[in-house]
Amino acid sequence: MTTVVAEAARPRTLRSAAWLLLAGQLLYIAMTQFHAGGDANDHHAIFATYAQNAIWSAVHLGQFAAMALLVAGLVALFTAPGQQARVVARIGLAMAGVTLTLYAALQAVDGVALKQAVDAWSAASVLEEPARFASAEAVRWLEWGMRSYEDFAFGLTLLLVAATVFGSSLPRPIAWLAGLSGLAYLGQGWIAGTEGFTAAQSALIVAGWVFSLAWMAWLAAVAARPGGEGRVAVPGMARGAVAVDA
């Protein structure tokens, strides 16, 4: 029987998780600044804006890359030493995978199908225009549904992060902030599925970003502090615990 001391691996895992999360969140915010803007529920106006946007595909691909980094950070956090046997961590790992899958489908609808639909509407003849517009609206409503369930999945994943941190000796405010970010995403999901992309949903997007950046930065600071190897406990492990590999 081989005894593996988890203390040395602990800060490395936390640093990897924190930096992946921070990089993904910052990249996502940066890429979103290049997204075409306007009243997203005024379909005639916003579809015309989308049709004229030359960087649409690049922006959405960048957003997907950012989400992939975020999910990689969540995977690193949920699979940290001592986490493998925890039910909450296992559920969180599964939910992270669901989130990325739903986000990929969302970007396929938004980043590809919607752009093709609005381009076809913009180039349509007078006789074809009503049918093309109806098609674009149908894709937009499909986007509402995809965005709603992706937000629900991401929100639940962040609540599982909060529960995981509560079961560790990491600072409790990290858990509270992760939980608040999860609630913000759940709120976004509800609004996107019932009202579309409204001002209230936009406010919750910003709130989710702020809370997420706060807990991710705090996690990075805890993992990077001098002497952290002896003070940082991975979620799911008591202080001074060791993992035993039979």
Give a verbal description of the structure.
The structure is a single chain. The protein has 246 residues and is mostly helical. The protein is 74% helix and 2% strand. The chain has eight helices and two strands. α4 packs antiparallel against α5. The radius of gyration is 21 Å and the shape is elongated.
Brief summary of the model shown:
The chain has helices at 9-32, 43-51, 56-78, 87-122, 129-166, 172-194, 199-224, 228-231; strands spanning 2-4, 243-245. With 246 residues, the chain is mainly alpha-helical. Strands 1-2 form a two-stranded antiparallel ribbon.
List keywords for this structure.
single chain; 246 residues; mainly alpha; two-stranded antiparallel sheet; 8 helices; elongated; disordered C terminus
Note the gap between the termini.
Answer: 5 Å
How many H/I helices?
A: 8
- Number of E strands: 2
Main sheet: which strands, in order across?
1-2
What percent of residues adopt helix (DSSP H or I)? over 70%
Mean pLDDT level = 87
Topology:
Elements: E1 2-4, H1 9-32, H2 43-51, H3 56-78, H4 87-122, H5 129-166, H6 172-194, H7 199-224, H8 228-231, E2 243-245
Antiparallel strand pairs: 1-2
